[in-house]
């Protein structure tokens, strides 16, 4: 079975791409507070190295983080020992009763499961709805079509003190998929270690997902920022609220 976000990429993602999680957290916490969710369990899908989990625990929440990457979970357990973390598929797990579910950083776009498809995502929406307490919140963001403008492919690189990552992106507009070919170089002693991963994502229209969430029973809002943090181009966040008991009286 392929491994995703192996040791070097997990390290690089943690030290070099933390802004998304850290800058999103204040806005997410504000949404929870606005909906009178100030305690209880947050289930964080695609929790990565635990950056969001740390912010949630600082705010007084309990956290269960789920991620398919063993290397990411290893970092998360060291960062947030008071939280619980599981190495599991985002689409095939038991969701406990909770007050909120989050998924930050286009995690639900990834096709890490060989049988992942739109129907599996919709089934996850149903299971999240059942797991949420009345008045509970499901917050997540997605990558939409239009990731690459004026061409079908782009190349770029990012570097840090002891690492370099090269990324080639290719979008298939007909199939609405995005492929990222990632090459990492991480310094180990005197030498640099090279590794490669290929990630496939399915791109979704936020309005399509909002319609499905509405059919399930959520009250849905589409936004393009978490508070002051504006999402990258062709990304959207959905805030889905399960009706509380007072909504029915």
From TrEMBL:
Record organism: Merismopedia glauca CCAP 1448/3
Protein name (record): Class I SAM-dependent methyltransferase
- Organism lineage string: Bacteria, Bacillati, Cyanobacteriota, Cyanophyceae, Synechococcales
Keyword Transferase attributed: yes
Keyword annotations of the record? Methyltransferase, Transferase
Q: Which CDD domains does this one have?
A: AdoMet_MTases
Q: Name one GO biological process term.
A: methylation
Listed GO molecular functions? Answer: methyltransferase activity
InterPro entries xrefs: Methyltransf_25, SAM-dependent_MTases_sf
Chain ranges of the Methyltransferase domain: 42-136
């Amino acid at each position: 079975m392929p491994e995703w976000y192996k040791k070097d990429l997990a390290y690089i993602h943690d030290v070099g791409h933390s802004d998304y999680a850290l800058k999103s957290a204040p806005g997410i916490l504000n949404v929870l507070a606005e909906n009178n969710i100030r305690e209880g369990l947050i289930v964080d899908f695609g929790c990565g190295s635990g950056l969001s989990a740390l912010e949630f625990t600082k705010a007084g929440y309990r956290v269960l983080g789920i991620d398919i990457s063993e290397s990411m979970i290893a970092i998360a357990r060291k960062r947030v020992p008071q939280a619980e973390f599981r190495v599991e598929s985002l689409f095939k797990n038991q969701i406990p009763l909770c007050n909120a579910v989050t998924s930050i950083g286009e995690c639900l776009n990834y096709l890490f499961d060989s049988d992942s498809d739109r129907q599996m995502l919709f089934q996850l929406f149903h299971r999240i709805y059942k797991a949420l307490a009345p008045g509970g919140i499901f917050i997540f963001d997605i990558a939409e079509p239009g990731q690459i403008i004026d061409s079908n492919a782009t190349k770029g690189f990012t570097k840090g003190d002891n690492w370099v990552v090269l990324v080639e992106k290719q979008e298939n507009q007909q199939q609405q998929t995005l492929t990222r070919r990632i090459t990492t170089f991480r310094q180990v002693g005197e030498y640099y270690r090279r590794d490669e991963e290929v990630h496939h994502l399915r791109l979704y229209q936020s309005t399509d997902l909002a319609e499905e969430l509405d059919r399930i029973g959520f009250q849905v809002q589409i936004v393009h920022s978490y508070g002051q943090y504006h999402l990258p181009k062709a990304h959207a966040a959905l805030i889905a609220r399960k009706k509380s008991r007072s909504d029915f009286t």
